[in-house]
Amino acid sequence: MSDHVPTRAKKLWDEWNLRCVVLISLLFQVVLIFLAGSRKRRASLWLTWFIWICYLLADWMAAFAVGLISHGQSNAISKELASFWAPFLLLHLGGPDAITAFSLEDNELWIRHLLGFIIQLIAVVYVFFQSLPNSQFWLLTVLMLLAGAYKYTERTRALYGACLSNFKAALLPNPDAGPNYARLMEEYSAMVAARVPVTIAKEPERGSSSLSTNNNDNNNIFETEILSPMEIVLNGYKFFNIFKGLIVDHMFSFHERNESRDFFFRRQAADAFSVLEVELNFMYDALYTKMVMVNSIFVYLLRGACSVLIGMCLQQFICLPKHNISLSDKIVTYVLLGGAVCLDLVAYFNLLFSDWTIVSAKQAMSRFLIRSPFGKRNHRWSNAMSQHSFISFCLKPRFRWVNTVADFLGVKDILDECKYKKSIVCEQNLKEFIFNELRTKAQKAQTNKMAKEIYSARGECVLLDYPRHYSYPLISSSVSDLESEYDESLLMWHIATELCYFTSTDQSNNNPNREICKVLSDYMLYLLVMRPKLMSAVAGIGQIRFTDTCEEAKIFFQRWRHELISTWSTPTNIGDRKVSACEKLMSVKTVVKPREVKGDRSKSLLFDACMLAHELEKFGEVRKWEMMSKVWVELLAYAASHCRANEHARQLSEGGELIVFVWLQMAHFGLGEQFRIEAGHARAKLLAKEVNTEYP
């Protein structure tokens, strides 16, 4: 009996292995073509994992099926039919347009995909020749082989183009030697020898100007114009072509800077964010999909030819006699052919209503596409902000044994994200506030020095508008890059914001600045604690500071646990728990600086933040929240502009982040180090009395 079961299982596997594997391979293609694009619109950990698993298994399953066919391990299927199925797997390995790379690292492995393509193609051709000369499907196999080989080539080419080194190389300008120095000196020496009075004049590059966009910026900065949906897409594409080099730290000219500033200075916040959304959508497509690769007339023609080949295969298979083919094999073949046709139609449909078609179509056609139900897009990113609250984290600790097991399994960070992270909608009033603050700062950047000061500020520039802060040294030192590191400033301001928020006297007045402070504070702590890779350029020892501060807070709350419980209306009311906890923290007398008592061993900032909160309270309710909201925008802008560009690009495949929009918006306002601010010289002239000679 023990030998009988494995024999039956082996027989069942030999009979159905290839049929099941090719159908599962097709199933993964269907899942990816419909779900892969949703990862840029939904910030869901489970969705990301599911797409990642499908992405990996899709390639593995197709390659495994090719291996089964090439080794002849399916005895129940004829070699002729198996050789016809093999090119379908090349088609599957080519993947859908919606995803060529799951992450940026996949693009760097383009050469591995190229080698894989060559090996799989050789295997499929080998299987084809094995089926000759008696195969009735030889013509169908050749047609499908051509279509599959092209699809796989398309994917490999897309990976090659999205590889960051190749992406950067494609952006390099033509070599520029500048004015002809040797020729100029020859002419100059000849004139000097002939005692002809001569001077060298430099002609500025056409389109150069001062750092400001124009002399009237201060007057017409708020003369906004509303954009139509089509104008939003067209302008998003225009600025994508100009600023896509941000991903690879490309340098930009003063002309590009001024053009961008001039455009965004005259936009409303809603339109500006919509343009940025379209621009980032194009960046996502360029890095993770085939859209750049397929966006040309030549590729459209090749794709049309592939579709014709697939259609011919379906028509020919219908007409061929199939008496010697089993019913199950007929069904599998029809499913493969029908699936190939349907996937092709879905790809055409997605391409037709994509932003790429809108920007390349005629004006009337573009209007039709963007107004159609399929062309309307509510959003191109998740429009979500993750939140992480220090007080909530400390009041809701996990059991110690859970932490021990989670640490052992290496899933502590995942459990923390599931338990303590929450997501909220990024409201329009928050976008408007951030945009207006950045625009006001950009307007002040009239010189290169001022632009760098604003770019490097993490709260200092805001405090200049509030002279009273000089009376409170902790406020000044908490945002100074000379006295505190960025992660130290962020954590202190987050805890101080929590303390002010939950002990505020105007909680029922719905102060918009108060809510903005809370949302940005929780968002920035989420980035610092749960997105350390994104914030690695500015995080410093943020993780150590956070854990030390949490430990001190937990010890403090545990000590006063019974007193805190007596103030709660209900034990499960987390709002009451936060209020009473913050009030208890604020009641601690902080006459002596914590560092003078504890030394420098512990990096906890708990009571430093309490001291900061006490100083902030002295500004009064309205003034306090107004100043704090602006400081939080500056802290956000600092992190956005100093994080690595490739980390911003990585967020595009995970639902997007508000910090990515701020990074791009700052670049459009000219706030950064990626601009060649001063104008060069297009040519030099020799001026001799009334005669001049130009040297381009």
From TrEMBL:
InterPro entries: DUF4220, DUF594. Keywords: Membrane, Transmembrane, Transmembrane helix. Residues 52-393 form the DUF4220 domain. The chain crosses the membrane at residues 16-37, 49-70, 82-102, 109-129, 135-152, 297-319, 331-353. The keyword Ligase does not apply. Coiled coil: none annotated. The keyword Nucleotidyltransferase does not apply. This is DUF4220 domain-containing protein. It comes from Erythranthe guttata (Yellow monkey flower).
